[in-house]
Amino acid sequence: MTMQLHGLLASLPRRWLEARGHPPPDGGAPGTIGRETQRALLEAVASLGGEGALLALSRGVLTAVDEPLVYALLNVASVEALIDKEQRLNRFFHSHHRVRVVALGPGHLTLQHESRADAPPARVESLFVLGLHLTLLDEIGCHHVQATLPASDDPDAVVFREGGVRPPLPPGDASRWRFTWSRFVARRAWTPGLDEVLERASTAPDLDAPVPVATRVADVVARDLLHRWTVEEVARRLGRSRRALQRALSEEGTTFSRTVEDARLAEAERLLTEPDRSITEIGFTCGFADTAHFSRRFKARRARTPTTWRQQQAGGPRGAASPGPGEGGVV
């Protein structure tokens, strides 16, 4: 069964409690977990396992590394790219809280966990999200990650070092986090299915008929649909100049922006055939700016909304695809 990142994260404290023989505060009721219930679950984990258990909970997200949304977050070549993707994710999922970048530089990152409008996050909520960021930083390739709580009563106390929590955590405000790491070496997990397709595409021998340039561009873009691809980046990967790439695409009757959008829409169509995935998740995973942008571009190019397209693929009548424009520098 597929799952969205938010649904997976919401389930982690309940699963932690059940694994230790403790009935969760909500009785283990299925369905959407509201904010108050989620807070009660996190408080129960902290009560039974200590606050350090909250930081370790988010390791459970790695059980879904082959999920497109989780894969999209982990498929990065820098911490800056991870944070950029997270900020875009915040625009898709309108949760009560958000994470704001305070400082980012070589070997260090400071984040602020804050409310969008109402009461500030509870301490247990902030520690849980802190744990998620520790997991993400470790998984993308940050070595010897350390974390402190600069707004707490002991701002210099290291709460995480060498892959482990260092209790007791200092009391006070836990909504600001400072991370440091010794070096960064990009890595990501092999994703069954997707990586196999990409490997075949990259290692396939040349045939007599040349591969269209647009296809080669799409192969590059498909490796990270969330990345803000520029003509220059793709041209370098294909061993061409910017002008040569644009000229070759023009000769094939297309543009760079349209080719990038083609790759995003192709993956969106594939994901839309999986009924458990939400339109919001698909739009984010495929690199669109927000849900409204995804719907507008899909309708412009497919003559129907993503929801209608999905319904028709499930058994309704099909309509003809509609072409649409696409041009720009960064997409």
Can you describe this structure?
This protein is α+β, with helices and mostly antiparallel strands. It folds into two domains: 5-23 and 33-184, H-NOX domain (Alpha-Beta Complex); 196-202 and 210-313, Orthogonal Bundle (Arc Repressor Mutant, subunit A), CATH 1.10.10.60. 47% of the residues lie in helices and 11% in strands. It contains 14 helices and eight strands. It has helices at 5-19, 35-49, 52-57, 68-74, 79-92, 123-140, 194-203, 213-222, 231-237, 242-251, 256-272, 279-285, 291-302, 306-313; strands at 97-105, 108-115, 142-143, 146-148, 158-161, 164-165, 176-180, 183-184. The strands form two sheets. Strands 1-2-7-4-5-6 form a six-stranded antiparallel β-sheet. Strands 3-8 form a two-stranded antiparallel ribbon. Helix 1 packs parallel to helix 2 and helix 9 (231-237) crosses helix 10 (242-251). The longest helix is centred in the middle third of the chain and has 18 residues, at 123-140.
How many beta strands in the DSSP annotation?
8
Q: Could you say what the CATH architecture of the largest domain is?
A: Alpha-Beta Complex
Net shape? globular
Unreliable segments of 5+ consecutive residues: 189-209, 317-331
CATH class of the largest domain: Alpha Beta
How many strands, what sense, and barrel or not for the largest sheet?
Answer: 6 strands, antiparallel
Distance from first to last alpha carbon? 31 Å
Mean pLDDT: 84
